[in-house]
């Protein structure tokens, strides 16, 4: 059951035994979003005279490791144009010869050890679909996870290869050609981390929606993930990401058509750095958070 932001602040100060000045000091010190916040404004928030936008509310909740769902009203209407973006992302057909599966299997792997065929398939995806050569990169030595989705014939229908980095690393290290020099870490090793989705693809609607829901869930329960980096190779993903504050930090090769279009030019892929709080505070996204496990269960995906 959602509570008002005013009530949340009152509860937070009581639980942590903070004065308003203590709380203000913590906010201004730990998040640049609040560097201009003053005591008068904070007091007005607590007395419900004014209310900050949801991004700021979630930023405060995540800073203090609070459950963000208590601040989200799932009944807030989603603008029609935003619903359309989500529908286009979900409905895109990549393999018209495949039927929707009654059940898909999800396997979560920490490394590619003993998965030579999968390793070969993912490298082929990188080379032939994204146009990058990763065969000389030893992903088996990287602290990365891979989620794979397979159908009832055990055919690979989707994957998501990802890891975590420090938040202050040089953005150039996120380039494909620099992946060998990019240090991946355990997400519990640092107070704040970035989630780096190196590559992801789904030929079926079920697994595509599941990957989006899993991303949203990961961000909503891991408050130390401040941003995520994602490599996008079709337009619907960029449209989805564009609901949040983001920076395009890298682009692929120019192509004549298809791929991702930015300012009238098509690229084989683009890479964006996306603010987690901004993403979660979009009505299109936060409308999915409260019942996210039910949404995932409805997709009939078994976890192996």
Textual characterization of the structure:
The chain has two domains: 5-71, Orthogonal Bundle (434 Repressor (Amino-terminal Domain)), CATH 1.10.260; 80-303, Aminopeptidase, CATH 3.40.630. The chain is 35% helix and 21% strand. It has helices at 5-16, 20-30, 39-46, 54-63, 80-91, 116-129, 205-221, 235-241, 276-280, 283-286, 292-298, and strands at 104-109, 144-150, 156-166, 193-202, 225-232, 246-251, 254-255, 260-262, 265-267, 270-275, 301-303. Strands 6-10-5-4-3-2-1-11 form an eight-stranded mixed sheet, sandwiched between helices. The chain has a three-stranded antiparallel sheet with strand order 7-9-8. A hairpin with a 5-residue loop joins strand 2 and strand 3 (156-166). The radius of gyration is 20 Å and the shape is globular. The mean pLDDT is 89.
Q: Cα-atom Rg, whole angstroms?
A: 20 Å
Q: Helix proportion of residues, in percent?
A: 25-40%
Number of strands: 11
CATH architecture of the largest domain: 3-Layer(aba) Sandwich
Helix and strand element order: HHHHHEHEEEHEHEEEEEHHHE
What portion of residues belong to β-strands? 15-25%
Shape from CA axes? globular
Give the distance, in angstroms, between the N- and C-terminal Cα atoms. Answer: 32 Å
Q: How does the helix and strand content classify structurally? A: alpha+beta
Q: What's the multimeric state?
A: single chain
CATH topology of the largest domain: Aminopeptidase
Q: Quote the average pLDDT.
A: 89
Biggest pleated sheet: 8 strands, mixed
Strand order of the largest sheet: 6-10-5-4-3-2-1-11
The overall number of domains is 2
Q: Note poorly predicted spans.
A: none
Using the coordinates above, name the CATH class of the largest domain. Answer: Alpha Beta
Continuous helix count: 11
């Amino acid at each position: 059951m959602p509570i008002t932001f005013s009530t949340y602040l009152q509860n937070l100060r009581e639980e942590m035994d903070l004065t308003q000045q203590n709380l203000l000091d913590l906010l201004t010190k730990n998040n640049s979003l609040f560097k201009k916040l003053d005591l008068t404004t904070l007091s007005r928030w607590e007395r419900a005279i004014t209310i900050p936008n949801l991004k700021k509310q979630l930023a405060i909740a995540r800073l203090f490791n609070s459950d963000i769902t208590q601040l989200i009203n799932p009944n807030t209407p989603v603008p029609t144009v935003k619903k359309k973006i989500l529908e286009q992302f979900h409905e895109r057909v990549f393999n018209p010869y495949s039927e929707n599966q009654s059940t898909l299997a999800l396997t979560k792997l920490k490394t590619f050890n003993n998965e030579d065929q999968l390793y070969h398939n993912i490298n082929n995806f990188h080379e032939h679909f994204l146009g990058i050569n990763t065969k000389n990169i030893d992903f088996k030595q990287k602290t990365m996870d891979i989620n794979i989705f397979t159908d009832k014939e055990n055919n690979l229908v989707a994957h998501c290869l990802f890891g975590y980095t420090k938040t202050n690393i040089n953005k150039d290290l996120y380039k494909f050609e620099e992946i060998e020099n990019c240090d991946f870490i355990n997400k519990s090793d640092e107070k704040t981390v970035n989630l780096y989705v190196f590559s992801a693809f789904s030929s079926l609607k079920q697994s595509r929606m599941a990957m989006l829901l899993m991303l949203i869930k990961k961000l909503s329960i891991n408050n130390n993930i401040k941003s995520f980096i994602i490599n996008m190779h079709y337009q619907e993903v960029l449209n989805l990401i564009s609901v949040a504050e983001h920076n395009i930090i890298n682009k692929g090769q120019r192509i004549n058509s298809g791929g991702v279009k930015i300012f009238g030019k098509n690229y084989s892929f683009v890479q964006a750095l996306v603010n987690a709080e901004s993403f979660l505070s979009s009505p299109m996204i936060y409308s999915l958070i409260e019942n996210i496990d039910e949404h995932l269960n409805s997709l009939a995906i078994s976890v192996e």
